[in-house]
Specification:
Elements: H1 6-14, H2 20-30, E1 31-39, E2 44-47, H3 49-63, E3 64-78, E4 86-98, E5 111-122, E6 128-135, H4 137-143, H5 176-190, E7 210-217, E8 225-226, H6 227-242, E9 253-257, E10 260-272, E11 286-298, E12 301-309, H7 311-318, H8 322-325
Parallel strand pairs: 1-6, 7-12
Antiparallel strand pairs: 1-2, 3-4, 4-5, 5-6, 7-8, 9-10, 10-11, 11-12
Helix pairs in contact: 1-2
InterPro entries: Cyclase_SnoaL-like, NTF2-like_dom_sf
Protein name: Ester cyclase
Pfam families: SnoaL (PF07366)
Length: 328
């Protein structure tokens, strides 16, 4: 069976590098006419090929001059969740000189790395019919000096690629279904936690899901951390204090490919804003959160986890417009 990942990967890599007429031909050949893109706030839903081009691809090209795409992870496989089908998942950066506003974010006039998590449904004819995309506009604000939230809980850094440098179109690796099995088991046990210690069964130790040297790469607003102790201190404790009844795992896509797995929900989490979080006082509101997780596993353990969260949408539900609040 031909590798269904390769043609869409080439399309996504090339579309920002060619002339306008060549780009139109690429869009016509690789996007279904009735394609639907769900993009992070404030873009949200785009329906139809023309709307997707005008509402997503063109703004990127206009704001990030000479924009180029750099994939850190690009995997594909059969989707375990409804609606099924074959899906792709990627962690990428859109790289360019940030010279014009992007979805309301003020430009820096300098080089920017806009991180993105992306899921694409690919039809049997090879065309993309559906996409979910979280672009980290909060981190883009940070790069422009206008982040409207407190200092990161963890360490702010450019999302690195996998330590093994083999995340793009992986081949000759482990069974992707077994990799996904491991990640699904971890997520199932992660749901319950001790409210005093914020620990969940089976996560760490000799028989735990996570490697002792785990790395967790978080989005703008959170930052990244090292080892389970860092994960608890720099993300989990504050998140569970603010949203103690959170329920996650409502996913539209779960795929495994070699040593990698990716899952996403739109939204994935439902929760009550019961405690203060990132400078926002508890409101008691019922909230939802769009989530994307990408994993690299080895020797039966989760080694690295890249996480994209639509925090602009989350704070909008709290009553705050972070784009309007940016400084600079």
């Amino acid at each position: 069976m031909p590798d269904f990942r390769k043609t869409p990967h080439q399309f996504l890599s090339e579309v920002h590098t060619v002339s306008a007429s060549q780009a139109k031909d690429l869009f016509d050949r690789h996007l279904a006419e009735d394609v639907v893109f769900d993009v992070a706030y404030p873009v949200n839903r785009l329906q139809g090929r023309d709307a997707v081009i005008a509402g997503f691809f063109d703004p990127l090209a206009n704001a990030l001059k000479d924009v180029r795409r750099r994939d850190e992870i690009f995997i594909g496989g059969p989707n375990r969740r409804t609606p099924g089908g074959h899906w792709l998942a990627s962690v990428a950066h859109y790289v360019g000189n940030f010279e014009e506003p992007l979805f309301g974010v003020k430009p820096s006039g300098h080089l920017a790395f806009l991180r993105a998590g992306e899921f694409y449904r690919v039809e049997p004819d090879g065309r993309i019919s559906e996409a979910k995309i979280i672009i980290d506009l909060l981190d883009l604000m940070r790069q422009s000096g206008g982040l409207p939230l407190p200092k990161m809980l963890g360490t702010e850094m450019l999302f690195p690629g996998p330590a093994t440098h083999d995340g793009v179109l992986p081949t000759e690796q482990a069974d992707g279904e077994k990799t996904l099995d491991l990640c699904e088991a971890m997520l199932a046990d992660l749901k319950a936690f001790d409210p005093k210690t914020f620990t969940s069964k089976g996560q760490t130790g000799d028989d735990g899901y996570w490697h002792d040297d785990m790395l967790w790469y978080g989005p703008g607003g959170i930052g990244s951390n090292y080892r389970w102790s860092g994960f608890e201190k720099d993300h989990r404790a504050s998140f569970l204090t603010a949203f103690p009844d959170r329920v996650g795992g409502d996913h539209y896509c779960r795929i495994g490919n070699g040593n990698y797995a990716a899952v996403s929900g739109w939204p994935s989490m439902t929760m009550t804003h019961a405690g203060d979080y990132l400078g926002e006082a508890a409101s008691g509101k019922s909230l939802t959160l769009r989530v994307m997780d990408f994993y690299r596993c080895a020797d039966g353990k989760i080694m690295e986890n890249w996480v994209l969260l639509d925090y602009l949408d989350l704070f909008q539900q709290m009553g705050r417009d972070l784009i309007a609040e940016q400084s600079g």
